[in-house]
Amino acid sequence: MKRKRRHKKRALVLIVEIILLVMLAGTMFVMAKYDKFQKIAVNEEDIETNDGMKKEGYTTVALFGGDSRDGQLEAGTHADTIMVAALNNKTKEIRLVSVYRDTLTRQADGSLKKANNAYFSGGPTEAINLLNRNFDLDVEDYVTVDFKALADTVDLIGGIELSPTQEEVDCMNEYLKETANVAGKEANFVERAGQQTFDGVQAVTYARIRKIAGGDYKRAERQRLVLEKIFEKIKGLSITRLNELIDTILPSVSTSFSLTELIGLASQAPKYQLGEMQGFPYRTVDKTMEDTGSIVVPTGVLDNVEDLHKFLYPDETYEVSQTVQDIALEIENYTGITKDDYDEGEVILSE
Questions:
Q1: Cα separation, 123 vs 100, whole angstroms
Q2: pTM score, two decimals?
Q3: Is CATH 3.40.630.190 the right assignment for the domain spanning 38-351?
Q4: Could you state, in order of their start, the residue ranges of all structural domains in the chain?
Q5: How far, in Å, CA of 5 to CA of 69, rounded?
Q6: Cα(183)–Cα(291) distance, rounded to whole angstroms?
Q7: 193 — pLDDT class (breaks 50, 70, 90)
């Protein structure tokens, strides 16, 4: 009996040692990669949230796609892709929302402009604050990638399967060379519609299509599809290939996450699952204004924001803040559009 107990103790100690070694290896791996990021400090005291909007049980992260041609991802870069990821810390489900870049929002100076103006004028900090201010979110951190990072990712995972329409193919071929030049890669023109494997330049160009039916609404949908396809393939990568991918793309990635936070996220990453994805605002009208140009106007800001919270934070009890109520009234007065102006026959509604 004593010998059996000694064997059990030794087995337990061995298991603990193995767990510690795995944790240590994961920590060393993240530390080795950390210096490759473009780290842009986002000071906690500079992040604004509306009263009572701290989200317990969730980690909310802003994801930006920059149009940088020189690899710099600070202010002065247009965020053509704006996404919000809500990570449920209990269920490990990730829910993702694309915010249409032309959505009319209140900026830091109090003016009403397109959502993507915030990153250009104030960098990641102001872009985060814009999301928190206009939509009652609790974003504290961000990740930004540029064209090259996305193209490199798709190439290193062996491409992704997509089914473009002929209209999309024609539009892609107009801009493929431009995307290839920015990414420093070769432009391979798309020869047909239908299901096929896209390389990195083709996938990025597909995600950027805007000047055909559906405009920014369909572009955001394409971006979510590309992200979903990438996520599916990355989950099946070997450690060697994953290491190569990380080494290649990190110089084209900017983030506010600290080393400690990244280690924590990395340790939990295998447990997370990508859940539903949607476009936001849900009900909109396109309008052109003299001051702001072509904009996406939420019809019924309060209803849109309430539905956003139901989707991202299904466990929370939510009441619209006074700040969002004030912004909703301001947008209504500026545009003359109310929720009663929504016409399902004329407006493209996200899936």
A1: 18
A2: 0.81
A3: yes
A4: 1-34, 38-351
A5: 64
A6: 34
A7: very high
